[in-house]
Amino acid sequence: MQSVLLANLSQAKEQQQAEHIAFQLLDIYPNTDLIELPSNWLYRIMITPYLDHCHIVRITVQPNLGNSVTQDRWYCY
């Protein structure tokens, strides 16, 4: 029982950290190479043009445990 609780706590902590990193990556976009991810974590950036002067940036962070986290932000110029 205790090991299950510890595993769930560890997974929840990683999810929270992944959310934080996703927002950090959006805050510094397009300079995303400035962020150092924890070992064996991955992130993916997808850019979708929208209208003439905007695009949507979607960042997905995949931690070791748990589900990936995705955040979007609009950039218009």
Automatic annotation (TrEMBL):
- Superkingdom of the source species: Bacteria
Question: Which InterPro entries does the entry mention?
Answer: PpdC-like_C
A Pfam match: T2SSppdC
Q: Which residues form the Prepilin peptidase dependent protein C-like C-terminal domain?
A: 3-76
What protein name is recorded for this chain? Type II secretion prepilin peptidase-dependent protein C
Species name for this entry?
Answer: Orbus hercynius
State the taxonomy lineage.
Bacteria, Pseudomonadati, Pseudomonadota, Gammaproteobacteria, Orbales
